């Protein structure tokens, strides 16, 4: 896992709206705190080597967003549209991301720590070295994805959909779910705990496991 390459001592205090000072909507080397961004519609914004601390995005649509070496701390990204994004060496820490749309995006070396992602759209993604730690992904659409070195640790996955996704090597054993939707023919190689295995036996085969 590669972490964001940021030297916070050299960051310049600013506002997210500094992005409009550049013709190509570029925001770089910034330290943003307690900013409120509402109903912004920007095509292909670029954010690099930046820390966003308690920045609230409300009703924003950032199609083809590019993030490189960025840290989000305690940000609210709920119900934003970040489809077709390119996200590289990025950390989301304690962020609220309910209903956020990342469809058709590329994520490489990305960490979600203690994030709320319920009802998010995470479909048709190309994910490489991505970690979800201590996060909630209830009712998340996680369909038709390409997975390479993906890790879920201590996450809430109830009613998550993982259809059209090859699950070989994926380990969900430390996570919790009452129900989950996956394709039987794509589940080979999935790692689960005994309780989860009992659910899958009932789900696919109608078998009830007695403890």
TrEMBL record:
Signal peptide: none annotated. SUPFAM superfamilies: Pentapeptide repeat-like. It comes from the Bacteria. It holds the Pfam family Pentapeptide. This is Pentapeptide repeat-containing protein. It comes from Companilactobacillus kimchiensis.
């Amino acid at each position: 896992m590669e972490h964001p390459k940021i030297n916070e001592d050299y960051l310049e205090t600013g506002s997210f709206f500094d992005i409009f000072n550049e013709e190509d909507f570029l925001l770089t080397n910034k330290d943003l705190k307690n900013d409120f961004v509402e109903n912004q519609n920007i095509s292909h914004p670029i954010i690099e080597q930046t820390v966003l601390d308690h920045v609230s995005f409300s009703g924003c649509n950032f199609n083809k967003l590019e993030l490189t070496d960025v840290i989000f701390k305690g940000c609210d990204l709920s119900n934003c549209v970040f489809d077709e994004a390119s996200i590289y060496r990025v950390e989301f820490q304690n962020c609220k991301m309910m209903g956020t749309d990342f469809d058709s995006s590329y994520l490489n070396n990305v960490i979600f720590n203690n994030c709320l992602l319920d009802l998010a759209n995470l479909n048709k993604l190309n994910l490489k070295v991505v970690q979800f730690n201590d996060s909630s992904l209830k009712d998340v659409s996680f369909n038709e994805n390409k997975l390479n070195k993906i890790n879920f640790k201590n996450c809430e996955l109830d009613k998550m959909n993982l259809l059209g996704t090859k699950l070989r090597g994926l380990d969900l054993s430390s996570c919790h779910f009452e129900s989950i939707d996956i394709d039987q023919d794509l589940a080979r190689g999935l790692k689960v705990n005994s309780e989860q295995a009992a659910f899958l036996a009932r789900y696919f085969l109608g078998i009830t496991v007695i403890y």
